Amino acid sequence: MKRTIAFTVNGKPVEIEVEPAGLLLDVVQEQLGLLGARRGCETGYCGACTVLVDRQAVRSCLFLAARIAGRQLTTIEGLATEGELDRVQSAFVEHGALECGYCIPGMILLAESFLAQNPHPTDDEIRRALASNLCRCTGYVKMVEAVRAASLVR
Description:
This protein is α+β, with helices and mostly antiparallel strands. It contains five helices and five strands, in the order ββαβββαααα.
């Protein structure tokens, strides 16, 4: 039996129907039409599906959609303001931390959440934080540089 829930997505209020066992990733992609959160492993391992729920990074392939009721959801599509990339997005571009791009939306959102909790991280702390999301193209060097640079921007 579907349930109607209300929440905010990228700053805009929405109301949708969800299945009790429906996943947030399916809602984001199929009902909201936002494709930045990627379907990677479907087990929560890779992090390609990372979104922010109340500014905390979560794996949307494991997060029940009904749990988003009354909360704030941010996807990669919601970071830019008036056409301007935010500081982490800009740093990823400026430092060439994009590679193929498949993992990048989740990686950027993970970095956003991490920097909100630790605004002045060491490189070691950045590496540990980013290690929870997989990137098959890089050695994470440019991503660490990008997150370090973003941490210096206020």
